[in-house]
Amino acid sequence: MALIVQKYGGTSVGSLDRIRNVAARIQRTVEAGNQVVAVVSAMGGVTDRLIAMARELAPEPPEREMDVLLATGEQQSIALLSMALRTLGVEAVSVTGRQAGIQTTGSHTRGRIDRIDPVWMNRELGEGRTLIVAGFQGITGEGLIHTLGRGGSDLTAIAVASAVGADVCQILTDVDGVYTCDPRVVPNARKLPEISYDEMLEMASSGSKVMQSRSVEFAKKYGVVFEVRSSLNENPGTMVLEEHPAMENVVIRGVSIERSQARVTITGIPDEPGMSGRILGVLAEAEINIDMIVSNIAHDGMARHSFTMHMNDLGRAQVALKPVLTDVGPEAAIETEAGIAKLSCVGIGMRSHSGVAARMFQALGDAGINIGMISTSEIKIAVTVDETRIEDAARAVHDVFGLDKAPA
Ligand code: ADP
Ligand code: ASP
Ligand code: MG
Q1: 313-360 pLDDT tens trace
Q2: Which of 229, 277, 353, 368 sits in a 20 to 30 Å window from 163, CA-based?
């Protein structure tokens, strides 16, 4: 008998028929002699609708109340799925974040799992029950509800798998696994049999929303091996695990895209110690995530810093930066550009292969696509391009590295 944690995402439980399908899958797994803990998302579109309703009432809804509101999405789906399982004769019980003992820290709407106290879950498992756990929610030390950021049910699943000591952790979704690029963008993208934590993390944090990036960080930290696979068929999926030497033979594992990005450039910064820290410090205080950072000295001897962020943060960033600009010097000014997107190539093989950036940039040049900013890490090369060209860019880069073909 294996203890299996299965996570079902929003599309997989998006209608009553889909919920019946999930119930039947869980029933099959249980009847095969396993114990199941299913972590479930809100029905597809529900979280978005709740957010839209809140914003209609209040442009900046209080985050404490947002958490209370958003957590209801998952509570609907756990109750419905448990009912569907009961009609099939499976003794299932719904489990909220609080009952699952998911303790969080951090801010409202962006809670972090601090620890899981699985006493309640272990007792129910001991009674032979199937557990249907609400994804995306936890409880603070003071007993307040927290949600875990968009896509947070992935994190719940990985953390629950670690807490209950699951033998298998499966992330069941609407694609067959992790592909070399989002198959909705690159139709000939190929399903990967395996991917390392570091590659999955880089892909997730650069736009491949098949996994929430924090969940991958957690999996790596606690050594939770998991499989991404479809909730609609029995095809084998993609194993996500610690890298092994054979993985380095592949130069590029995958390509990610991220739309709705904006660039902020600050010019006229005196070339002195402390300036970058001051500028980025206010953005950090405002909890604005910035991504690519490029800094150089212009011909007038003044420094300029550029960075990218999500377009939704641009307004807040401008407000936060305004007082600093006066502080930094009389010539400091801010320029912004919206409507850009980011394209990233990821692969641990880059550590031992050279010329990757050149091939990527040539492919973009041949496709007539202009590159804006460039940033690199040990296993990633990322560029910004005009958002209208991002899909062409992804296909050109996917083609040049022959990612549609299985490596020899
Ligand atoms: P769920 O509701 O199950 O959490 P998501 O919508 O969050 O599912 O994630 C699945 C989606 O991720 C797919 O439908 C696919 O369009 C998208 N996606 C983006 N990049 C990739 C990739 N590299 N491989 C597979 N799917 C990807
Ligand atoms: N329901 C939440 C969301 O839509 C969490 C999740 O689905 O993982 O982001
Ligand atoms: Mg998801």
Answers
A1: 999 999 999 998 888 888 999 999 999 999 999 999 999 999 999 999
A2: 229
Q: State in Å: Cα 182 to ligand 1 middle.
A: 7
Nearest residue (CA) to ligand 2, atom 9: 150
SS3 category, 348: helix
pLDDT in tens, 183-239: 999 999 999 999 999 999 999 999 999 999 999 999 999 999 999 999 999 999 999
Least distant ligand from the CA of 172: 1
- Give exposure, 1-34, as e/b (b: 16+ Cβ within 10 Å): eebbbbbbbbbbbbeeebbbbbbebbbebbeeeb
pLDDT tens sequence across 83-96: 999 999 999 999 99
Structural domains of the chain, ranges and CATH numbers in brackets: 3-174 (3.40.1160.10)
Q: Tell me which residues have their CB closer than 6 angstroms to ligand 2.
A: 9-10, 41-42, 47, 73, 135-136, 150-154
CA 83 to ligand 3 center in whole angstroms? 23
Q: Please, is 235 exposed, middle or buried when counting C-beta atoms within 10 Å of its C-beta (0-12, 13-18, 19+)?
A: exposed
The predicted pLDDT at position 328 comes to 86
CA of 153 to the centre of ligand 2 (A): 6
What is the C-alpha to C-alpha distance for residues 220 and 302, in angstroms, rounded to an integer? Answer: 42
Entry pTM: 0.95
Ligand 1 centroid distance, CA of 404 (Å): 18
Those residues with Cβ within 8 angstroms of residue 265's Cβ, 6 or more apart along the chain or in another chain? 304, 305, 306, 334, 335, 336, 337
- Chain length of the chain: 408
The rounded Å distance from CA 14 to ligand 1 centre is 15
Nearest residue to 349 via CA among 245, 200, 219, 205: 245
**Amino acid letter, residue 250:** V
> Ligand 1: residues within 6 Å at CB?
9-12, 41, 151, 173-175, 178-179, 181-182, 184, 208-210, 254
Pocket test for ligand 2, best of 145, 150, 155 (most atoms within 8 A of CB): 150
- Residue 276 clears pLDDT 90, i.e. is over it: no
